[in-house]
Design goal:
By secondary structure, the protein is an alpha/beta fold. 42% of the residues lie in helices and 17% in strands. Belongs to the NAD(P)-dependent epimerase/dehydratase family.
Length: 310
């Protein structure tokens, strides 16, 4: 079929990308994955490529010429490639290189090629420590790490190319993504893994403070749905929160995981002063702009993850 539209997806071989690509194929797009394969899953990409509608370009977003060349003929762009939040603090130079320069290379090429829509994976971390819940897209932004700063700057760069070249974009501010296939390096996934490993050894999870810190855990399947919806939404040129709107405390998470593992232990609370941060998305704009609502409840998603081995 010559009339299939092509989606160019950076980081398409990563955790979120590998959930997005099959949904794009279901929507009858051709897919061009652009990924340096540093953390990408070659076996999964090879299986997708066997469909005939997926190709892999093994390259790095830091090279603007490579990005520009590879994007030729694409009608839509999804930019997921980034260095993680933890890595950005241990190596700010690489973080700036990949996240800032990479953002700009992808956005500039998309503007040059006149793509129909660019979807950018931003992050709820652009808010910093929120002053109130739920966190709304128009709240003050206070990004705290090089990663978060690069996500906010990415949104600003999109605004620049919208004004300069009429680029149509949506920045999705992902909250705490979890699900099958996730690497275990993110802070909150390491919390999940720590709890689960102890539970599987018959030990109780240990929680610092009272376990009041909370996150808005959103399943990667829902994240992928939001990305695909953002490609064709009528409204554009805005940041959009992607979360459940529910803040799940660490104490609640421990109890969900205890139930999922089928253990009868009680969490151990380690009394110490903990900076209590809470997270919950205002989800109204996602409904209005994307027609999106999350479908997988935290208890269901976490239980499924534990019972099916993640």
């Amino acid at each position: 079929m010559a009339d299939k539209k092509t989606v160019f997806i950076t980081g398409g071989a990563g955790f979120i990308g590998l959930h997005v690509v099959p949904m794009l194929l279901e929507q009858d797009y051709k897919v061009r994955i652009f990924d340096n394969m540093f953390r990408g899953d070659r076996d999964k990409v090879a299986a997708l490529a066997a469909t005939g509608d997926v190709e892999l370009i093994d390259q790095d977003v830091r090279y603007g010429g490579a990005v520009h060349q590879a994007m030729k003929g694409a009608s839509h762009v999804i930019h997921l490639a980034a260095v993680s939040i933890n890595k950005s603090q241990s190596d700010p130079y690489e973080s700036m290189d990949i996240n800032m320069i990479g953002n700009h290379n992808v956005f500039a090429a998309a503007a040059d090629h006149g793509v129909e829509r660019l979807v950018f994976a931003s992050s709820a971390s652009v808010y910093g420590d929120p002053e109130k819940l739920p966190m709304h897209e128009d709240d003050t932004l206070s990004p705290l790490t090089p990663y978060c700063i690069s996500k906010r700057a990415g949104e600003d760069l999109l605004g620049y190319y919208q004004r300069r070249a009429n680029l149509s974009w949506i920045a999705l501010r992902f909250f705490n993504v979890y699900g099958p296939g996730q690497k275990t390096t993110a802070y909150y996934t390491s919390v999940i893994n720590h709890f689960v490993n102890r539970l599987r050894n018959g030990e109780a999870p240990v929680i610092d403070g009272k376990g009041e810190q909370s996150m808005d855990f959103i399943h990667v399947h829902d994240i992928a749905r939001s990305v695909v919806l953002a490609l064709t939404s009528e409204k554009a040129n805005v940041p959009v929160n992607v979360g459940t709107g529910i803040d799940t405390s660490i104490a609640d998470l421990a109890r969900i995981l205890i139930d999922a593992v089928g253990s009868d232990v009680e969490p151990i609370f380690n009394p110490r002063d903990v900076l209590v941060s809470r997270r919950a998305a205002d989800i109204q704009r996602a409904k209005d702009v994307l027609g999106f609502e999350s479908t997988i409840a935290v208890r269901d998603g976490m239980t499924d993850l534990i019972r099916n081995g993640g």
